[in-house]
Write a structure and sequence with these properties.
It is a single chain. This protein is 39% helix and 21% strand. Strand 18, helix 14 and strand 19 form a beta-alpha-beta unit. The radius of gyration is 23 Å and the shape is globular. It binds nicotinamide-adenine-dinucleotide.
Length: 472
Amino acid sequence: MTLSSLALAKTAENTAIEVRNPFDGSHVGSVPCLTVADVPALLATAREGVRRCAALPRHRRAAILEEAARRVEQDAAAFAALIVAEAGKTLRQAQKEVKRCINTLKLSAEEARRNAGEVVPFDAYEGSESRQGWFSREPLGLIVAITPYNDPLNLVAHKLGPAIAGGNGVLLKPSELAPLSACRLVDCLREAGLPSEVVTLATGGADLGKALTSAREVRMISFTGGFVTGEHIARTAGLKKLAMDLGGNAPVLVLDDCELEATVESCVSGAFWAAGQNCIGTQRILVQASIYAEFRERFLARTRALVVGDPSRPDSDMGPMITEQAARATEQVVAEALAEGATLLCGQRREGALYHPTVLEGVDHRSRLWRQEVFAPVVVLESFETLEDAVALANEPEYSLHAGIFTRDLRRALWAARRIEAGGVMINDSSDYRFDAMPFGGFKYGSLGREGVRFAYEDMTQPKVVCINELS
Ligand code: NAD
């Protein structure tokens, strides 16, 4: 698969970012490492992109997004292989991400056709009876989209799809650790007829991201990544719209009347999908005391049976973390929790970037492992007596994204769902369920905006009112 979009990037005086396979360190590809010096040229191209996208009628934006979806589908096997190679996801996980990306693009096409504005009921206000009018959804202008490494294709589609549907120009800075799927997606959009300036690729590191986000002419920053980066961006952004999709520390509640076999299966997947590098990955499993021992035994047995290793093998359940450094940092967080009194039930074994599925219990609630996002294949088990206790435990961290609850009793599930502080509560699913059309985002600290195509589209457009006063 060639990446023609990169030919447009300025390469002469730039060094390259070499993308390496996290599992075996082999060379996967390279992209130009643009720097702060490239920002004026990037902005000039993006300015033209803003003009060109706003000039595309809705049917053209929709047709381009649909055609891009078709091209991704046609190239699905190559996309999946690229995700495996650059991000270390297993083949099955990568295939699922490609399918979701196709859906995200199709949903964006629908939004372009459908969501043009609303009639304003002026006559609902006394004295305004002589007026009629509407609001339309207008492009914001230039959007800077910054994405992380863990879903290197679909999270990019979640920004480009709604932005294009809304008629905006985009400066896209994908993760420097896994930028190739994003570049290939941009190729598909261009091959589908998108004027090349509409999405300007800005491959580079944090310095480039910082310079782009501080540019005054940028109307919105759509960021997905970690809290520390989000806080940096918020400090330097100035007066522009911010959408922040940050981390989680998801709890799952397992009640005594749950269907145990299915619950264990779902919790194992929730904890170790994408080697735990998943913002809605299950980090804390809270189990009712009367079934704790049985749940723990079954959960550990199922965890130990996971096939860990080469992610390109069709039978692999879990691949490496993104870098050896990330795996070493995880080892450190777990070592800290153990020093603070936790008990290790399995794992805490590392080979390069491969960090084996790790389960702990008795974790001190002041430890990093309990309070912060670990973003690694590590999960904590904890027992509770009453549903009130479980909800209080679930809500302890200062931020959250998703939660899950397993029970056959809908009344208890709904009682808990109302009280759990999360952007989404999954009943009889782990925290790790997402449908790309639903509103998706955080609760509590750092929660700014929602993704999910319709919601991102609405964030990426601005209402403009036209009001007609009947001549009297
Ligand atoms: P990260 O914050 O390290 O990097 C994300 C992006 O920000 C990269 O492209 C990086 O180059 C860029 N960046 C770094 N410093 C910057 C700065 N000062 N200014 C502008 N851009 C800058 O995140 P990561 O390690 O790639 O991804 C993991 C994090 O992403 C986790 O915390 C995870 O929970 C979060 N995440 C959230 C969601 C969600 O939808 N809520 C989805 C996936 C991942």
